[in-house]
UniProtKB/TrEMBL annotation:
Signal peptide (residue range): 1-24
Name of the featured protein: Capsular biosynthesis protein
PANTHER family for the chain: POLYSACCHARIDE EXPORT PROTEIN GFCE-RELATED (PTHR33619)
Source lineage: Bacteria, Pseudomonadati, Pseudomonadota, Alphaproteobacteria, Sphingomonadales
Residue span(s) of domain Polysaccharide export protein N-terminal: 47-123
Domain of life: Bacteria
Amino acid sequence: MNDAIKAASLLVVMMFGSTMVAHAQAAPAAPQPMPVASAPQAFSSVPTDDAYVLGTGDVITAEVLGRAEFKTQVQIQADGTLQLPFLGTVKAADMSVLQFRETIKNSLKKGGYYADPIVNVTVVNYASRYVIVLGDVGRPGMVPVDRNYRVSEILALVGGPRDSGSDFIMLRRTTGEEIQLDIRKLATGTLDQDPFVKPGDKLFVPKAETFYIYGQIARPGTLKIDTGMDLRRAIAAAGGLTTMGSEKKVKVIRDGKEIKKFPLSEPIKNGDVINVGERFF
């Protein structure tokens, strides 16, 4: 007889929802969700990946589609657990978003709360496994790391460097170690020139240093200084001399002072002004 009642109740749930079963079977009262502790401010340009592994301090929202009674935002506590409606204390740390979503779904089905719930889990604040990308990039912010990512992959996820960005990126480890990486070699160099990032790492693309060039030059104006750029490369970057220009008539002004006889092999510095004069016939 009891089996028949349970089967009938389950059929009603599937057809009309859990509210119609309330008269036949009282559902446990949903506990009030625990207040969310203050979590680090976070911004992510990258949608939550189902493979992201949850950890202590992460803040998530969990909900059952179409069920207002099961919708909560909660932080994973130091012991790796969190509080959910109906289910109470549930372990979440060290589980992927996909695994945790399935855990909630199966627990709700096993407890008889819903027949076949559609569960959604979203990470609101990443506080355990992420890297921070700052500087002159498309979308600076915090990027969750659910697997081993190389610097080039993280840079691509945030939209890459802006046109005004430098040609190198700084990688700062949690140990304090700083590594300067050539952005072009991230794609064309060896694997050690595109290292893996680790949770807690910071990436920074500085704004490019610039110089100003005018006179008998093909494209006068303000240009970026590439790593190791000397006067010869600066002239080439500006399109080269005009037919009236002369390398012997090039002047470099640095910090308001003219540097006489500036060698073509000498490095250019931020803020330098280059004047290309006319040749004498």
